Amino acid sequence: MSAPRNLKRALLITLLLTLCAGARAAESRPNVVILLADDSGWGDHAIHGNTTSHTPNIDSLARGGASLERFYVCAVCAPTRAEFLTGRYHPRGGVRGVSTGQERLNTDEKTLADAFKAAGYATGAFGKWHNGSQWPYHPNARGFDEYYGFASGHWGEYFDPPLERNGQPTRGKGFIADDLTTHALEFIERHRARPFLCYIPFNTPHSPWAVPDEFWQRYKDKTVPQRGADPSKEQLDQTRCALAMMENLDANVGRVLKRLEELRLSDNTIVIYFSDNGPNTWRWNGGMKGIKGTTDEGGVRSAFFIRWPAGGVKPGALVKEIAAAIDILPTLAALAGLERAGDKPLDGRDFSPLLTGKQETGWAPRLIFSHQNGNISARSQQHRLDPKGALFDMLADPGQTRNIASEQPRIASDMAAAVAHWRAEVLPKSKDDRPFPVGYAAFPRTPLPARDGIPQGGVKRSAGAPNCSYFVNWTSLEDRITWDIEVNTTGSYDVDILYTAPVADAGSTIELEFSTAKLTGKVTSGWDPPLYTNQDTIPRPAGESKMKEFRPLRLGRLRLEKGRGQLTLRALEIPGRTVMDVRQINLTLLP
Questions:
Q1: How far is the C-alpha of 507 from the C-alpha of 530, rounded, in Å?
Q2: Exposed/middle/buried for 217, CB within 10 Å: 0-12, 13-18, 19+?
Q3: In this structure, are strands 304-307 and 301-302 parallel, antiparallel, or unpaired?
Q4: Mean pLDDT of 395-413
Q5: Which of 15-29, 83-97, 201-215, 240-254 comes out lowest in average pLDDT?
């Protein structure tokens, strides 16, 4: 055999051995399941001392794995999700709020899912995304092969809800947390023979206050002996419903753990559970100050449990060092033995040595910063500096009742200087001017919900919370609804509008305009369903929309030129009292 042929054969054998070794390495990597609660406080769990709550499955993760005793997230939902997905503080990635586009994670940020997908994992997300609805902000563009849920933040329908599957509208079955879990279990089943990352961001116990009746019946008459830090603000039925929703969530966590056991995947699956902020109401939270929306301890401290038997995570271990959502990405990458995607510097730290007992030297001191609406607090291992400059010893005074800044001026001064530096380095210096993207061949259908539009004239939102609102009170030819969009691809687009309209008011002529292009159509028939009356267990807060069934009105086909501008919806003729209520415009790029 000639030398060149021997060389080719050797190279081929080397290549095959390399591929086989890579395949074996991928197969031996752990699966990852991330369970994220929405608006659950640290004190909502029985294992933390809540005598009314019943959370045996969630608590089992702590007993079978490790608990991070002082784990910090953000004050509200979308920022936490951005931080754990990227390992970076949320303002760095463009996330400034929870709605009207401020929740979007910049497209140049690489996510946890990007890293696992690059390593050969099957990746799926099932639930509340809350970091951008349109491509390329959508989860299918951020490393997740499969997505089922809703990309918005707050959602107003919890039974048989309108959802999406990989960008296409669908309808869920039953209670939303149950339905999301069912789809996650189907994903796990399909990919049990290869490593997978399964992310289940629940949207409970976030309001509206809705839970299957079997759970509510267990709590509706219960005595609640433990009260919130400010009992005068606590509404006991909301507390009862939140705990009923927690028991339902716990049951769904139990479904996941049981299926992993049945598939013999439990030993080599990393399971993580945490919440995205503090409790959404005043209820018992271990005596901590603050709730969701605040940067006090009670607003940003979350439960965090992690289990991985095969990886040496010690059952019942208690990690006392402070940690945060920004630490999840580097920690999981280290545990799974893979490289993170992207090259931007991380704010998070790999805490895996703390889980396995391999930390041989002292854990370096650090500060964790919490930000909400310009308010910043800083947490060290022992102290918290609040946005007003008050200093608290969190070990001696977890309720933040005594300001010790005058007694510890050096500590207060050093932490204040660190906050000032963080503010200058991390917070944005300019207004958010990002348009909403439209027209990508990889994801032809672009939703433009009322959340992202601007009402003008007499048009109003159905409620103060934009995320699950719709436009009402469209009665005048001077009224407008606009969306600031950027068209990525010149082409023809099918246009439909999710609407309702009283039957007697049908017939309005409407026009959709972008640049020089105009499309005119009619509200040809009325569709006036009643507001849902069977969705809520107890009345929803005044700021949340009562929902109804919207139907698509096909407006026609519009040619859009590439570029940025205002997409404007107006009426040219109004024969009745009102034009219609609008929940969303859909623009679908045609091939």
A1: 20
A2: exposed
A3: unpaired
A4: 97
A5: 15-29
Active site residue 77: yes
Which residue out of 130, 138, 183, 371 is catalytically annotated? 130
Selected catalytic residue, list 45, 54, 74, 77: 77
Q: Does the CA dihedral 331-334-339-345 come out positive or negative?
A: positive
> How far is the C-alpha of 159 from the C-alpha of 549, rounded, in Å?
12
Task: Give which of 155, 262, 117, 223 is closest to 540, Cα–Cα.
Answer: 155
**241 catalytic residue (yes or no):** no
Q: What is the dihedral of CA 393, 398, 399, 404, to 10 degrees?
A: -10
pLDDT digits (tens, 9 = 90+) for 63-105: 999 999 999 999 999 999 999 999 999 999 999 999 999 999 9
Neighbouring residues of 222: CB distance < 8 A, sequence distance ≥ 6: 52, 240, 243
DSSP 34-65: EEEESS--GGGSGGGT-SS---HHHHHHHHHS
Structure tokens at 42: 């640290």
Calculated CA dihedral for residues 252, 257, 258, 264, nearest 10 degrees:
150
117: closest CA among 95, 88, 148, 85?
Answer: 85
Q: Edge-to-edge strand order for the sheet containing 301-302?
A: 301-302, 71-72, 323-324
| Ranges of each domain in the chain | 26-356, 375-426, 436-589
- Pairing between β-strand 122-128 and β-strand 445-449 as defined by DSSP bridges: unpaired
Start-to-end CA distance of the chain, whole Å, equals 54
**Dist CA 10 CA 1 (whole Å):** 13
Q: Which CATH architecture has domain 26-356?
A: 3-Layer(aba) Sandwich (3.40)
CATH fold for the domain made of 436-589: Jelly Rolls (2.60.120)
